Amino acid sequence: MLPWKRVLRPLAALLLTAAVAVVPAATAQAESAPSSGWNNYSCKPSAGHPRPVVLVHGTFGNSIDNWLALAPYLTSRGYCVFSLDYGQLPGVPFFNGLGPIDKSAAQLQVFVDKVLAATGTAKVDLVGHSQGGMMPRYYLKFLGGAAKVNALVGLAPDNHGTTLNGLANLLPYFPGAGDLLSTATPGLADQVAGSAFMTKLNAGGDTVPGVHYTVIATRHDEVVTPHGSEYLTGSDVNNVLLQNLCALDLSEHVAIGIFDRIAYHEVANALDPAHASASTCASAFS
């Protein structure tokens, strides 16, 4: 393992562990997020940012910890931001994204309808990390989501699956999650390359008409390998490699979602392409 990965792994684990200490598992639901505009159902989108943004966490994540950095980043820029918990297994607290992915997509469907009703808008933008960047594609393709979604932005999404070894690489970031591998976790099985779920999801093409797709990948991804398998093929797709924007960016699979501001700058560009600006190493300080 490279020395920088030795640093990033415990740093990511420390950040997530601190979040657990601050936000007890019993209250780790979307409605208990900070009151800075994140999950504020009285928020009304502005003319500059006319669509609410729905954040979709990754495997083992939840609606708060995955977004402690990105949600404030977006709300401070004037977006109405919402996040949900999905894929909960009975008797498994805190760690989400483990249930059957088609059922998780149905939970996203209900949540998007709730956000649209609250904000009075016709469409949302979706931003997801890992499974959260891939699972919405099922919603778009099979559950009518394409009519309600303007854009899908995926941070290190496993769009074409990964391996069990790759999924196991997530475990050091989530203390106690390893115990879950001894239980039934259909959400993990669905993400394995070549699974029945992945075969159905990608049959007939990666994308659906009317939705703008952005994939933001990192060369240092140790969970979804090779990182090029994250990319989508379609007429309205922007595939981005972080290291083409900043060669010094060492973020791996978890870091790209929980604190990489260069990646966040690309998220902002995807959400508001009319006012996009070049992402560089300096974006880490913007």
Can you offer a commentary on this structure?
The protein is built from 11 helices and 6 strands. It is of the alpha/beta class and 286 residues long. Strands 2-1-3-4-5-6 form a 6-stranded parallel β-sheet, with helices on both faces. β1 (53-56), α2 (70-75) and β2 form a beta-alpha-beta unit. The longest helix has 20 residues, at 3-22. The model is unreliable at 1-35 (pLDDT under 50).
Tell me the layout of helices and strands:
Elements: H1 3-22, E1 53-56, H2 70-75, E2 81-84, H3 101-119, E3 124-129, H4 131-134, H5 136-142, E4 149-155, H6 164-168, H7 186-191, H8 196-202, E5 212-217, E6 237-241, H9 242-245, H10 255-258, H11 261-271
Parallel strand pairs: 1-2, 1-3, 3-4, 4-5, 5-6
Helix pairs in contact: 3-5
Low-confidence stretches: 1-35
Overall number of strands? 6
Shape: globular
Counted by DSSP, the helix tally is 11
Mean pLDDT: 87
Structural class: alpha/beta
- Rg is 17 Å
Largest sheet: 6 strands, parallel
Distance between the termini: 30 Å
What helical percentage do the residues reach? Answer: 25-40%
Largest sheet, order of strands side by side?
2-1-3-4-5-6
Structure described in brief:
By secondary structure, this protein is an alpha/beta fold. It has helices at residues 3-22, 70-75, 101-119, 131-134, 136-142, 164-168, 186-191, 196-202, 242-245, 255-258, 261-271; strands spanning 53-56, 81-84, 124-129, 149-155, 212-217, 237-241.
